[in-house]
Design goal:
heterodimer, A: alpha+beta, 4-stranded antiparallel β-sheet, 13 helices, B: 16-stranded antiparallel barrel, globular
């Protein structure tokens, strides 16, 4: 009996996070109140090296055909590198490949930038204002402001903090009526995010944050060519993709945010912040085309 | 267009910094862009970096990573100090005549004729430029130490002609300009509303395109190689 009580207590403890998670989901902490930004004058957050979880976040925001193109071009490029290393083989790839690779990378880099800054979760200005994002309730110390303000833009310092935390504060939280609609909407947003003129940096769903999305074909290419990859690491995209050689176990990112199966977080590109109103209208237009019941559940600084 | 791309964006941001103050549209109103700006820019293969830009009618200071640029006006002269990592230079920019154009939201009116002399008198005149309503020209005889990504403009000339006019927050710059480089490349630059865009071909590492949008207290832009930048006025 004592054992049983102990076991029940342990089970209860194990169930606690699930219950808490479910409660958060039902109450929609992220939805009603959203994460908070913690302001301080502490030392700037160190730059973190790219890891597989970050790169997967960016890759997951590409349309399937854009991802295929990136994989094919990487494969071709590494083949060319291999050919150059072997004087007995003829290099059949020319400048055209470089141009296509550059164009493909140019579409991918803004996503990688957004993913890097999103996962980082802490940012600093050049004059010492430090900002980090936290789940509401997890905060210890520092002045806090809502990442998504209920009304108004707030004080100047608040506006600065939200600018530094742009991958969070300028993102749109979309709520679809059901998971299937959410999936269709994500597909369409990713399709359009892969275009050169796109304003979208990341399209994140529950699986994105859980890190469970798989990129088997890309992983195979980088694993098979790991030695060549090391020689091509000067390329900014290759350096990121090389992290998939040894991705490790799926890693949860952005612990400050929960997304339900019917929610998406759409993060703009850094280069689109001055077109924020246009970005919001664009997101709503796409959402409306999929299902007019989709809503934006947060408010951006404006 | 690697580091140079973001350099072009930063120069544009610095040169154009001034804007309408009521965030949102980029319709072409001409409120000054003067103020202190937080800047965030990306680097190829590295984490984005933050910086600061201060600009008004008398001075311009830009600090971005290990790079810095400061120009302080004293009458018709500017003391110019630039630092790129471990490389630094001090020069004087002297206005010969002007201003000759209304640059709208740009707080520092650099129109008219100018020359830049090295801080060291022995090297004499380095560069000169003129900017008018419909034309511009710049040339350099000698240039001090610059980081490799800037390239060397020594013994080079660029001439520009405005081919079309358009309403812009940048006043007389509004419209489309064609730029011819003595090195053989050509560029176009377009100022319309709150947007500045451009493209170069045959210009070596400068080949490619860019776009920057100014909308009230915020500006952002990118190059066609995927470099990005955004700035917000404090």
């Amino acid at each position: 009996m004592a054992w049983s009580s102990r076991r029940n207590a342990v089970e209860a403890l194990l169930l606690l996070p699930l219950v808490a998670g479910a409660t958060l989901g039902c109450r929609g902490t992220a939805r009603e109140h959203g994460p908070v930004l913690v302001l301080s004058s502490s030392a700037p957050a160190p730059d973190e090296a790219l890891d597989a979880a970050t790169v997967k976040l960016a890759l997951g925001s590409l349309a399937p055909n854009a991802l295929d193109e990136l994989v094919d071009l990487l494969d071709e490029g590494l083949t060319a590198l291999e050919t150059k290393a072997n004087p007995l083989l003829i290099d059949v790839l020319d400048g055209d490949h470089r141009d296509r690779w550059a164009a493909s990378v140019a579409r991918f880099l803004p996503m990688l930038n957004a993913a890097r800054e999103f996962v980082r979760g802490a940012w600093s200005s050049s004059d010492g204002l430090s900002v980090r994002v936290e789940r509401r309730g997890d905060v210890r110390g520092g002045r806090t402001i809502p990442a998504w303000p209920a009304a108004g833009a707030g004080e100047r310092t608040d506006q600065r903090a939200r600018f530094l935390a742009w991958p969070v504060s300028y993102a749109r939280l979309l709520q679809a009526p059901d998971p299937l609609t959410c999936e269709r909407l994500a597909g369409l947003l990713r399709e359009q995010a892969s275009r050169p003129e796109a304003m979208t940096g990341l399209v994140l769903d529950q699986a994105s944050l859980a890190g469970t999305r798989r990129f088997d074909e890309l992983a195979r290419v980088v694993r098979d060519r790991r030695r060549l990859l090391a020689r091509a690491k000067g390329d900014p995209a290759v350096a990121g993709l090389a992290t998939l050689v040894d991705p490790g176990e799926p890693r949860r990112v952005a612990g400050w945010l929960d997304l339900s199966p019917r929610e998406l977080l759409v993060v703009p590109r850094l280069s689109a912040l001055a077109r924020d109103r246009e970005f919001g209208q664009y997101v709503m237009r796409v959402a409306g085309a999929v299902d007019p019941r989709v809503t934006i559940a947060n408010r951006v600084p404006g | 267009m690697k580091q140079r791309g973001i350099g072009v964006l930063l120069i544009l941001l610095a040169a154009c910094s001034s804007s309408s103050g009521q965030g949102g549209d980029a319709s072409g109103s001409e409120s000054s862009l003067a103020g202190t700006w937080d800047v965030v820019g990306t680097r190829l293969g590295d984490a984005p970096v933050s910086g600061q830009l201060i600009v008004d009618a008398d001075h311009l200071t830009l600090v971005f990573g290990s790079n810095s640029f400061a120009a302080l006006r004293d009458g018709d002269k500017f003391a110019v100090v630039a630092g790129f990592g471990s490389t630094a230079s001090a020069n004087t920019a002297q206005r010969k005549n002007g201003p000759t154009a209304n640059l709208g939201a740009v707080p520092l009116n650099v129109s008219g004729s100018w020359y830049i002399a090295s801080g060291s008198e022995s090297t004499g005149e380095m560069c000169s430029w003129s900017l008018g309503v419909d034309s511009a020209e710049g040339s350099c005889l000698y240039v001090g130490a610059l980081p490799s990504w800037v390239g060397s403009p020594a013994h080079a000339t660029a001439t520009a002609q405005r081919k079309l006019t358009a309403p812009s927050i940048f006043g007389d710059l509004g419209g489309e300009w064609q730029v011819f480089l003595s090195t053989g490349g050509t560029c176009t630059a377009r100022f319309e509303g709150g947007k500045v865009s451009g493209a170069c071909s045959g210009a070596g590492e400068f080949s490619g395109s860019f776009e920057v949008v100014f909308a009230g207290d915020i500006a952002s832009g990118s190059t066609d190689r995927g470099l990005e930048l955004s700035a917000k006025r404090r």
